[in-house]
Specification:
One of its GO terms (biological process) is signal transduction. It is found in: Cell membrane. Its main location: membrane. The protein is an all-alpha fold. The chain has one domain. About 75% of the residues lie in helices and about 0% in strands. Helix 2 runs antiparallel to helix 3, helix 4 crosses helix 7 and helix 6 packs antiparallel against helix 7. The longest helix has about 50 residues.
């Protein structure tokens, strides 16, 4: 199959499903339907938290918080994406334009095809892993209960896949079975939308890294062929560099607030999961809760790691432009070309990055700090439990 875009077919289908893809008929209806279903579940989740907000049910309360906070984070993500949908559409238009430009240049097309293959593979892997982890996480209770079924087990002990407080009796059949299936499908839908967002971040970063590789490749070509050292050649490179900077700025607009919420919310979720782990370690009867929580940890770690890795990779790639510019044979070039190189070097000093609310860069250092804070919280809990 010939690849014509960095955006994978799976990701494109997902963005169309949530109404974010441009020129999709009734996109507003799709988005409102998705958000309405999320809000309804959120209302019942927070009703459950309010009803069980007491010290005697602390472990039960903390067990319900991770998914509730994760749903809230997803609502904020897609609300922010919808508010910046024009910026998002500009980004998609830029991607299409970049592919049209490189389609007739074999070297450029080869670079972008490699990045597109990586993007498609990573996106598909995210969808698969998140779906499996979510299924194991929420079906764990049911599997364990079917294995350790006791004689006094009755309908009043039946639990829904997620902790929600419904305004009607949900224990009687067939209402209970209907709710189990509906809620499980909604959980998988939620997991699907999280994968869409993570796949989108990787896709955009890999696309801009491909464009940076093309610029670096062109500078190497100029060094090998001095007759290419013409002002029009440098003008094309400057124009491409400006487009990369604009693309990065649009990404920053799109993800800055989302990254901030991701850091805050995921830190809270990790702390809640840590509390559950400590309880399950000290309570042998809840071993299955520990196993279930491990899958939740994996998903949250990946959620945090994705955006931190994207910011780190973008910063690393932006440094390559300055390196490639300096490594050209600028001392053998005409003075006019040398002046252009100086301006490119100066412009490259400002690194491209993704920030969390313009307060901190998303990088491996940020990821390490988040993990250290979460582990410290768990260590304190373990010491005082």
């Amino acid at each position: 199959m010939v690849i014509t875009s960095t955006v994978s077919p799976t990701l494109k289908m997902g963005l169309q499903f949530v109404g974010m893809w441009p020129d999709v008929p009734y996109s507003t209806i799709y988005w409102l339907s998705f958000m309405s279903s999320m809000l309804i579940i959120q209302c019942f989740q927070y009703l459950y938290i309010c009803d069980h907000f007491k010290m005697s049910e602390l472990s039960n309360l903390v067990d319900s918080l991770p998914l509730t906070l994760d749903y809230s984070l997803t609502l904020l993500k897609y609300t922010s994406l919808w508010m910046y949908r024009r910026v998002f559409h500009e980004i998609l238009a830029t991607i299409d334009n970049d592919w049209r430009e490189c389609i007739n240049i074999h070297q450029h097309l080869h670079v972008m095809t490699i990045k597109a293959n990586m993007s498609h593979s990573i996106t598909n892997a995210m969808f698969s892993f998140n779906a499996i982890a979510a299924a194991l996480y929420f079906l764990g209770d049911y599997v364990v209960r079917s294995v350790f079924l006791t004689a006094d087990y009755n309908d009043t002990l039946r639990q829904l896949p997620i902790k929600i407080q419904l305004p009607f009796d949900s224990q009687q059949s067939p209402m209970f079975e209907f709710l189990v299936v509906t809620l499980f499908l909604h959980i998988m839908l939620h997991t699907f939308t999280v994968s869409i967002f993570n796949g989108l971040i990787f896709t955009l970063v890999l696309h801009v890294s491909g464009q940076i590789d093309i610029i670096c490749q062109e500078f190497r070509n100029i060094s090998r062929n001095t007759f290419l050292c013409s002002l029009p050649s440098f003008g094309i490179l400057v124009e491409r560099h400006n487009r990369i900077i604009l693309f990065s700025e649009n990404m920053e607009k799109l993800f800055s607030f989302i990254a901030l919420m991701q850091v805050v919310w995921n830190t809270l979720v990790i702390c809640c999961l840590g509390f559950i782990v400590i309880i399950s370690i000290h309570n042998e009867a809840d071993t299955f809760v520990f196993v279930k929580t491990v899958f939740g940890y994996c998903v949250i770690f990946i959620d945090v790691f994705v955006i931190c890795f994207a910011g780190e990779h973008l910063s690393f790639k932006s440094k390559l432009i300055a390196n490639a510019t300096y490594e050209t044979l600028w001392y053998n070039m005409p003075s006019n070309a040398g002046k252009i190189i100086i301006f490119i070097l100066m412009r490259s000093q400002k690194q491209l990055t993704i920030t969390a609310g313009n307060m901190m860069d998303m990088s491996f250092e940020s990821f390490t700090n988040i993990m250290k804070a979460s582990v410290s919280y768990i260590s304190v809990l373990n010491a005082i439990y």
